[in-house]
Design a protein that fits this description.
Blueprint lengths: L8 E4 L3 E5 L14 H6 L4 E4 L2 E11 L2 E10 L2 E6 L11 E7 L4 E8 L30 E7 L6 E7 L1 E2 L5 E2 L1 E9 L2 E8 L12 E2 L9 E7 L6 E5 L3 E2 L3
Antiparallel strand pairs: 1-2, 2-7, 3-4, 4-5, 5-6, 7-8, 8-9, 9-10, 11-12, 13-14, 14-16, 15-18, 16-17
Length: 240
C-alpha cells in the first residue's frame, strides 16, 4: 500500500509546537542516521528543546507498514524507534506535538486493527489509556496517541481514538491537528459515524443538520491520556 504526498501542517505558539500529516511518506531506503536525508522526505518534523524529531513509517512489505520515529541532536541521531508496532497492521506516524511549558512530547500513529499479540503493538502502552485498544472489527484507520520520552523514545502511555458504529465496531478517525491547552492534549480529527463522547460511547447524530461524513471531531485528554475532558462534534449531540 502507498500513501499520498501532501505536505505536513505545522503550528507553533507559546504553549506548543506541532506538525501533522495524515498521509506521510515512507522512510524505506533512507539512511536514518543522516538527518539531511531524513529531512528531505518532508514528513512531520518538530524541534523539542535541543532535539529535532521526524515521524513517518517504513514499507516493510507490499501490504504492510510499520511506524518510525527518529530523533536528532546537533545533527547526530540520538535514537530511532521502529519497534512500536511490528504486526501485520498498517501503522504510520502522522503527527508530533511538544508541550513547551511541561516539556512533554506526544506522537500520533494510525492503526487498522489488532493482528498480533498485545505485546507486539500499541496495546502494551495503552493499558491505562482512555481507550485501551482498537476494539471490535478492523480495517478503518484510527488514531493512536502516545506520550513519548524525549530522551529515549520510550512510550510512556498511549490511548486509541476511534469512532464507533451502531454494531459496536470501531470506525475511521483521521488526524487533522494536534495542540496543547493548559497541559491537556487536544486532538482535532475527522470521523465516520460516530465520534465518541468522553464516556467512550457514540455521540448522537443530529438528523436535522443532514451533514455528510466525514464529521469534525475534537477530543481533549489529560496529560496522562487516561481521561477525556472534552469531546465535541458539531453534527452530534450527547455527553461532551
Amino acid at each position: 500500500m502507498t500513501s499520498s504526498t501532501s505536505e505536513p501542517t505545522m503550528t507553533a505558539n507559546p504553549q506548543f509546537i506541532s506538525a501533522v500529516n495524515s498521509h506521510p511518506r515512507s522512510f524505506s531506503g533512507v539512511d536514518l542516521t543522516n538527518e539531511a536525508a531524513v529531512k528531505a522526505i518532508a514528513n512531520p518534523c518538530i524541534t523539542a528543546g535541543d532535539c529535532t524529531l521526524y515521524i513517518g513509517y517504513n514499507q516493510v512489505s507490499s501490504l504492510n507498514q510499520n511506524p518510525c520515529l527518529v530523533c536528532f541532536k546537533a545533527g547526530q541521531q540520538l535514537w530511532c524507534r521502529q519497534d512500536y508496532e511490528n504486526t501485520g497492521d498498517d501503522s504510520k506516524g502522522t503527527g508530533l506535538v511538544w508541550d513547551i511549558q511541561n516539556q512533554r512530547l506526544y506522537a500520533t500513529f494510525t492503526c487498522t486493527g489488532s493482528q498480533g499479540t498485545p505485546d507486539q503493538d500499541f496495546r502494551r502502552f495503552a493499558k491505562k489509556g482512555w481507550l485501551p485498544s482498537y476494539g471490535q472489527g478492523g480495517g478503518p484507520a484510527i488514531i493512536v496517541l502516545v506520550h513519548i520520552d524525549l530522551a529515549t523514545g520510550d512510550p510512556q502511555v498511549a490511548t486509541y481514538i476511534s469512532a464507533v458504529l451502531s454494531s459496536g465496531k470501531s470506525n475511521a478517525c483521521s488526524l487533522k491537528a494536534l495542540s496543547i491547552k493548559g497541559g491537556n492534549v487536544v486532538v482535532d480529527a475527522e470521523t465516520r459515524f460516530a465520534p465518541r463522547g468522553i464516556d467512550r460511547k457514540a455521540l448522537i447524530y443530529n438528523e436535522t443538520k443532514k451533514a455528510p461524513a466525514p464529521f469534525k471531531y475534537t477530543l481533549e485528554l489529560t496529560p496522562d491520556l487516561s481521561k477525556a475532558v472534552r469531546a465535541t462534534a458539531p453534527d452530534f449531540e450527547g455527553l461532551s
